[in-house]
C-alpha cells in the first residue's frame, strides 16, 4: 500500500487528512520523516540533511498560505557524532532563518540508520488556509520557482561516486558540493503568503508536478491542461539530461522540488505574480474533470514520488 492509498483508508477516521498541514484555529502544524536510504543519497552532508528535513515541513506551511513560526526535529542515528549533530542543527537553524522562523529544539534517539522527523508550525493570515479543494474550471494553473533541481542533484550525487570520478577527485568534490547546494531549497513561505488571499487551491510539489496535479484534481474534482514549454526548468537539469523528453521527465515526474502548485482566478494572475518575492509562472489552465489531466493535449501520467509501494 502506498501513501495515497493509506490516506484513503484513514479518510473515514481522519476526514481532514490530505492537505499539506493540519489546521487548529489560526495555527497550521505538519510533520515529516526522512530516512538515509530513501531520502539522503551518499554524499549528503549532515548540514544539508538538517536544512532539507526541516525545509520539507516548512514547505508544507507555505502551501497552506501561512507564516512559518517555528520548527523542531528528531535526530536519530546508530551513534551520536558531535560534528555531524552540530552540522545538522546548523542546517536546521539556517533554513528556519531563511523564512523568518525559529528552530527551537527537538529530540535525540538511536536507530539502525540515520533518520530524522521534523515538525513545523505556522500562523494563518486573515485569508485563512488555502486547501487543495478550491480549484474551478477557468482558473489559471501556476507554479513557483524552477523544477527538476532535486533530480539534477541526485544525478550529480551519482556522478560524484562514479568510477570516472574516482580518477578525478576534484571533479568528484565539485559534483558532490553542487548536489548538496541543489538539495538545499528555500521553502516558498513568502510566496505562499503572497498567494494566500487569492489562490483557490494550493499544495507543495514534494511528489512532483504531475502527481501534484493529479492530487489537486482529485481534491477539487477538476482537470488540468498543462503547457509543457511553460514549465520553468532549473538550469542544472540541462547539464545532466539529453534532450527535451528527459528534461521534462525530471522536471515533471521526479518530485522533491518543494515548489508551490496553485490555481488562481484568471484576472488575479498578473497582480499576484507581481507581489510574489520569488517567481510565479502560469503553466496551464483548470478544466472540467471530464477533460482529464493533460500536457499539450496528451494524458499526463500520475507518476512521481510516492512513499511505499505502488
Strands of the widest sheet, in order across it, are 7-9-6-10-8-11-12
Strand portion, in percent? 15-25%
Instruction: Please bin the fraction of helical residues.
Output: 25-40%
Number of helical elements: 12
* Structural class label: alpha+beta
* Alpha carbon gap, first and last residue: 7 Å
Computed CA radius of gyration, to the nearest angstrom? 19 Å
**Kindly state the mean pLDDT as a whole number?**
93
User: How many β strands by DSSP?
Assistant: 12
In N-to-C order, the SSE pattern is HEEHHEHEEEHHHHEHEHHEHEEE
Biggest β-sheet: count, sense, barrel?
A: 7 strands, mixed
Q: What is the 3D form?
A: globular
Which blocks of ≥5 consecutive residues have pLDDT under 50? none
Please tell me about this protein's structure.
The protein has helices at 3-10, 36-39, 46-63, 82-98, 149-160, 163-166, 169-183, 189-195, 209-220, 235-238, 244-253, 269-275; strands spanning 22-24, 27-35, 66-77, 102-110, 115-124, 140-144, 201-204, 222-226, 260-264, 280-288, 293-295, 298-299. The protein is an alpha+beta fold. Helix 3 (46-63) packs parallel to helix 4, helix 3 (46-63) runs parallel beside helix 8 (189-195) and helix 5 (149-160) packs antiparallel against helix 7 (169-183). The mean pLDDT is 93.
Concise overview:
By secondary structure, this protein is an alpha+beta fold.
Task: Summarize this structure as a short list of keywords or feature phrases.
310 residues, alpha+beta, seven-stranded mixed sheet, five-stranded mixed sheet, globular
Amino acid at each position: 500500500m502506498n501513501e495515497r492509498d493509506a490516506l484513503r483508508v484513514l479518510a473515514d477516521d481522519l476526514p481532514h487528512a490530505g492537505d499539506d498541514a493540519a489546521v487548529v484555529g489560526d495555527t497550521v502544524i505538519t510533520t515529516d520523516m526522512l530516512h538515509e536510504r530513501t531520502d539522503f543519497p551518499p554524499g549528503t552532508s549532515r548540514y544539508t540533511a538538517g536544512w532539507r528535513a526541516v525545509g520539507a515541513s516548512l514547505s508544507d506551511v507555505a502551501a497552506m498560505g501561512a507564516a512559518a513560526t517555528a520548527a523542531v526535529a528528531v535526530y536519530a542515528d546508530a551513534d551520536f557524532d558531535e560534528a555531524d549533530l552540530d552540522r545538522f542543527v546548523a542546517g536546521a537553524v539556517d533554513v528556519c532563518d531563511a523564512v523568518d522562523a525559529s528552530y527551537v529544539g527537538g529530540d535525540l534517539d538511536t536507530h539502525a540508520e540515520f533518520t530524522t522527523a521534523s515538525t513545523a508550525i505556522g500562523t494563518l493570515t486573515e485569508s485563512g488556509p488555502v486547501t487543495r479543494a478550491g480549484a474551478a474550471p477557468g482558473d489559471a494553473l501556476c507554479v513557483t520557482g524552477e523544477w527538476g533541481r532535486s533530480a539534477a542533484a541526485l544525478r550529480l550525487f551519482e556522478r560524484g561516486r562514479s568510477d570516472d570520478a574516482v580518477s578525478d577527485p576534484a571533479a568528484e568534490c565539485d559534483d558532490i558540493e553542487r548536489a548538496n547546494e541543489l538539495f538545499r531549497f528555500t521553502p516558498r513561505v513568502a510566496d505562499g503568503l503572497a498567494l494566500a488571499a487569492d489562490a483557490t487551491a494550493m499544495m507543495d510539489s514534494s511528489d512532483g508536478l504531475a502527481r501534484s496535479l493529479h492530487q489537486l484534481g482529485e481534491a477539487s474534482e477538476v482537470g488540468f491542461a498543462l503547457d509543457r514549454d511553460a514549465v520553468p526548468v532549473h538550469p542544472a537539469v540541462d547539464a545532466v539530461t539529453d534532450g527535451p523528453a528527459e528534461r521534462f521527465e525530471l522536471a515533471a515526474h521526479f518530485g522533491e522540488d518543494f515548489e508551490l502548485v496553485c490555481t488562481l482566478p484568471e484576472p488575479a494572475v498578473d497582480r499576484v505574480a507581481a507581489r510574489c518575492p520569488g517567481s510565479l509562472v502560469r503553466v496551464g489552465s483548470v478544466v472540467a474533470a471530464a477533460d482529464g489531466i493533460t500536457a499539450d493535449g496528451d494524458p499526463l501520467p500520475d507518476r512521481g514520488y510516492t512513499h511505499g509501494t505502488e
